[in-house]
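Retro notes - structure team

What went well: the batch runner handled both jobs without manual restarts.
What didn't: labels got mixed up in the shared folder, which is why I'm recording both outputs here explicitly, each with its sequence directly above its tokens.

Job 1
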Amino acid sequence: MSATQNLVEALFGPSAPDADPCPTRTRAVAWARVSTDMQEERGLSMPEQLREIREYAVKHDIEIVEEFSEAASAYQKEERRVEFKRMLAYVKANKAVSAILVREFSRFSRDSLRAQSLIRDLREAGVKVVSLNDPEVDPDTVAGVYMGAITFAGVEAYSKAVAFHTRKGCRANIQARDPETGWCFKNGGQPLWGYRSERLVRGEEKKGRPIIKSVWVLDDTAVAGRPVHEWVRECLVMAGGGSSLDEIRDFLNRNEIRARRGRYWSISTLYTMLQPHSLLQYCGYGVWNVHRKNGTMRPAAEWVIVENAQPAIISDEEALRITARRRSDQRKRFDTGYGQSRTSKYLLTGGTFKCARCGANMTGLTTASGTYYVCGSLPYRRGMGCGPGVYVPQKQVEAEVMEGAKALLGVCSDRKGFTRQVNEELRRVWEQRTGCDPQADRKVKAVDAKLSNILKAIEDGLVETAWANGRLRELRAEREALAVPAQASGEPPQIDDKTALAYLLDLERVLKQGDVAERKRVVRTCVQEIKLAPDSLEVEITYRLPEPVMNGVVAGARFVPDWQRDRMPLVAAHWVYALAKQGGREMRRSGLTA
């Protein structure tokens, strides 16, 4: 034993025993992704990814505590990747999870910068992203930094190449003509109303799988005694003759022609049918590359247009007549008493109150007999809505909502506990809005340590000076970003018991005497959702509850103090009210469920 070891043992005692030969198993979540719903339906990738991940976990003695998967593009923003966002939240909330297993990094994200940023953030939180098929690198070494950048750049480059060749194939496919039918092939998607997609087998691949192509043909399904494509032609001719969208909608509904997504037609669907790219297709032209990936329309010069791509339903002259007529007609404003504006007298419009049958927002309706809430599809389908109309009396449903809000926002019996929670929430909001990080001091020290290590390495003769200088600039910028908010923001606002009580009393005042705008804000704070079930004639009101004991109601959620901006977390507690009859003149309470 050396003199150094003797000194260490004298100062700190005998050396610690060897590590536990049976350490706690690594806990991980499995993540699988395919790019499209079609891939998911065919089982091309998802089951195979999960199977490989499970085999890897067994081989390396890793416990998979949860599996997540979705069919979505890895280029989508995180907020649109619902399952991906849920997986990240799960990992961050469960401290026992220390790894995310993926078949390859491209399943995680194809954007190299975003992927590296996410993986770095997870690593700082103690979670490692493990790829089964990509090389493992140490991000804390110079070689690891280079290898990581090369790996993710390769993933993104591959994805870009696939997208390029896919678009090239789509462009060629839509211009290719089927030798048997004479029509051009399609790249997928739902055909316009009046057409149906016909799948054709055109040869075999090298591995013996059939080559499937699709073309559009006229939809000759008989509806009300006539083929569908004839109804389409009549509607288009009506539009060219000067009929309004309302008149065409009423014509279809009167003849009981079902819309594709529901029983009754709306003017929005007809409006889409009369757009230039749709009219071109009704004239028999094949049209591709109309919309960008984000849904916006490209300039017409970028469209790919092919003549005689499918059977025509109207002529070019009829399409020009429709366009000219639509441009000359001034669009009339629809106003028959339906109220949806923020300044309307209806408290529950704007998305709070919805129809459970079709998902449309309930909107206010003023009639000679009173004021009601009706399904928002009613004004667009001229009295038919998504089915038999149900009229919910405004005064009664709003009175029930306000009574529930009063019960939930009554004066808290534990004033000190309420004040403490408000102050905690104020600190959280302050940190979020000012950019102040409560862990800033710890992070500054960590950055300082990295700076010191790199400077020492340069002094010791580090060869990669270019990398070191770039890394020093990054770390210094990171340190400045951490230090400035902490110096400039001051202290978070805090309230005392007296202020908290005044706040609660003010909420009560608003509920009783506030104007429409103030009461709307309180309703949106206290109410998660209101749904009308037209078939059972029930109105279901689901509230958001604060954590303290409010008039005997206990719920596990934090109270958000700024009710004019923020909303409370959701909890499962709701009232159900039954309409006494169709067209509802009264409501009766049927109970509280949790």
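Job 2
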Amino acid sequence: MLFRLLTLGLCTTCVVLLLAQPPPRTEVVARPEPRAPRVAFAGALSVVDVAAVALPVLPRLVPLARDEWIEAINDRVVYDDRQAAALMWSLARPGGYLDLTVVGDGPARRVLVLIHAASTASVRPATAR
């Protein structure tokens, strides 16, 4: 009888403590950064095919008219020429590509820069004469 009374008292105490406890609360510690707005495709497409070039030369290979500038690289908006060059250099990988959105006085257009790794089969060794 005493054992039943102690068991009933402990179970009642556990139920009361569980009911008196506040419900768990979930908080968001850090909010995700907003994504850059996607640039809609509008206009013509140009393809620049390059193989094993030095990084400083890469921005000069993109054909731009005097009144055109690069607005986005891989749908990441850029605000000036230095930022565009730095982003091109950081994203350029052999076997990869750069998707440039070019705007100006005319309609916007896309330029796709394909970057290939250097092929050793196409390089001929110099022969001594």
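One thing worth noting from job 2: DSSP finds two helices and five strands in the chain.
We'll revisit the folder naming next retro.
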